[in-house]
Amino acid sequence: MSSRDHRHFARIASAEKGFESESIAVAARRSPGENIEIGLELSEFAAAFGGEIDQPDQISPARVWRERKRSEW
User: Fold this and answer.
1) Torsion angle, CA of 20/26/28/31, rounded to 10 degrees?
2) Above 80 in pLDDT, residue 53?
3) Which end of the chain has fewer CB atoms surrounding its CB within 10 Å, N or C?
4) Exposure pattern of 1-40 as b/e (b: 16+ CB <10 Å)?
């Protein structure tokens, strides 16, 4: 790569670092509940593009333990 390319990508990296720091500061000023809501909205937005958000069946840890013990016998 040329020195021009290095400078170009260094400027991009510097800008990204600044945006990242700013985003972290903004998120830190919000309440945890607000951040969770935003995360859920982003998940729904991503799922609208073909993703699937399915929760696996909830299996209790006790049931998993019993099944493992049965298979050991």
Assistant:
1) -140
2) no
3) C
4) eeeeeeeeeeeeeeeeeeeeeeeeeeeeeeeeeeeeeeee
Q: For 10, how many CA atoms within 13 A lie in the half-sphere containing its CB?
A: 7
**Contact between 9 and 17 (Cβ < 8 Å):** no
Distance of alpha carbon 48 from alpha carbon 69, whole angstroms? 41
The residue type found at 72 is: E
CB within 8 Å of 43: residues ≥ 6 apart: 53
- Asked whether the beta carbons of 43 and 53 are under 8 A apart, the reply is yes
Return the higher-pLDDT residue of 47 and 29: 29
